[in-house]
Amino acid sequence: MTTGAFYQQQDDRFLWDRLREGDRDAFSEIYRRYFPLLFRYCSRFTHDTGLVKDTLQDFFTDLYLRRAMPGTPDKPKSYLLVSVRRKLVRALDKVPYTRALPEEHTPVFMLELSPESYLISRQTAALAERHMQQTLDRLTLRQKEAVYLRFYEGLSYDEIAEVMQLKAVKYARTLVYRALTELKPLLAGAEALIFSR
Amino acid sequence: MSYQDYEAADFAAEASFQRWVQRTDDAAARFWEQWAAAHPEKREVLREAQLMVRSFRFHAMDADPLEMDAVKAAIDNVLDAEERSKKSTPLIRRLLIGATAAAAVAITAIVVINKANEGEMLTLRTGFGETTTIKLQDGTEVWLNANSTIQYPRTMTAGNVRTVQLEGEAYFKVKHAPEGLHPRFVVHTSLTDVEVTGTAFNVYNRHDSAAIALAEGSVRASGKAMKPGDLLQKSPLGITLTQSPANGFTAWMEKRVVIRDGTLATVALRMADLYGRKITFARPGMEMLPFTGSAPLESPELLLKAVCTVHGLRMRENNDTIILE
Prior knowledge:
The complex is a heterodimer. Chain A contains ten helices and one strand. In chain A, helix 8 crosses helix 10 (169-191). Chain A has helices spanning 4-9, 12-20, 24-43, 49-65, 76-94, 118-122, 126-137, 141-152, 157-163, 169-191; one strand at 112-113. Chain A folds into two domains: 4-105, RNA polymerase sigma factor, region 2, helix turn helix motif (Rna Polymerase Sigma Factor, Chain: A, Orthogonal Bundle); 118-191, Arc Repressor Mutant, subunit A, CATH 1.10.10.10. Chain A is elongated and about 55 Å long. Chain A is mainly alpha-helical. Chain B has three domains: 3-55, no CATH class; 61-100 and 256-325, Phage tail protein beta-alpha-beta fold (3-Layer(bab) Sandwich); 105-243, Jelly Rolls (Sandwich). Chain B is built from eight helices and 20 strands. In chain B, strands 2, 3, 4, 5, 6, 7, 8, 9, 10, 11, 12, 13, 14 and 15 form a 14-stranded mixed β-sheet that branches. A three-stranded mixed β-sheet of chain B has the order 17-20-19. A two-stranded antiparallel sheet of chain B has the order 16-18. In chain B, helix 2 crosses helix 3 (26-38). Chain B starts with 7 loop residues before the first helix and ends with a strand. At the A-B interface, helix 1, helix 2, helix 3, helix 4 and strand 1 of A face helix 1, helix 4, strand 1, helix 5 and strand 2 of B. Strand 1 of chain A pairs antiparallel with strand 1 of chain B, so a sheet runs across the interface.
């Protein structure tokens, strides 16, 4: 048995304290826990997987090398998300025109329905699907991001406010609420399909 | 804001509500089914929220595990090179911390399969010059001093007394009566057992002596009931119950080595226990010289310098041994 099983039982605070003391195993566990989340999140901003991987490699390297600087974050998840986002935005700014299509230079946040969605599985007509995506695309970037963090990654409103640098937690709730209200018409068609549990 | 005031979008964005709709959480299901039954006026709102959860499922791009490993390997390369380039540590420091400095956090965890019905026991061991903390499954917190070993159950059950085995020194903050688990908590050492009901205390068990210092609550050890502030010491000479000096037994938790009203023999013993380094004296009788002092755990050389200053001694090394003369 390796050290892995022991570290996997520990909470984030323990890992962070060990990381600050230079513990490479604790660092590896933080990487194992958070790389998938950060990769998914970064991939919402760009299709350039290579750039995302480069950014994450630099990000985690710095996390270890500069481990002495920050205290243990209260909310490691949002701390990592907000830091990686800052780094990614800087990296995206530097991308030469040859590497990205011009329209990708405007900030994006991609949000697409999954095939598991009730709407897609019940209404397979391509036209209906396009209509749904168009409705989704009418959301602001901020709304999309908040909806993604809430629905896909299960972040609390507290955490969302921190990641998106909102002045108050209530704005996170407002973003999600407005987004869902805008999407509500999509549900009208599917309403008939709902059945009792 | 209470659920009473929630609209469909609020429910839909609630993590436990999502888990109910996706049927991934029995506890959430029980909660929401009861809540729905108790609030018939919310029926329509809940239906709409359920539809939202089923509809707003998004596509995300997951990392390929192989790519994840490749990125990690690249990071490790950089970090390994960084560590090799670090400058060497000063002499005495190297003597004391020595081999463990390179692996300053070489905590090992070994799985031991216990053949009795208690199930799987895990072992956590600290090396010389390092301390660590761990939280057990029941919420009990343990600070483990240097050169110490604790064995604890991977899973605790209602049917078995919560039991850990200690060699060395540790401070326990025991979770009182955790729900669904056995109320008793016992620390076994080679000399004595400490029986606990919810409390904070320090256990020292090295060589042929054991010391238990109680901070909060109550415990029973070697047949004696202890009150906060009590210090119970057990050695071949017998058992004594006295008042413990303030913080005398917990300084190590703040990563300090403290010698109070000791002798140079105490210092030598401490250095051997915590750092695995042998200290010898050039003249007989020197070990009985009195000493009181403290130093950060990671700079034990300061403690030895203090010893030299106080008693006008010099320090030199011979192989792995530190000689005071």
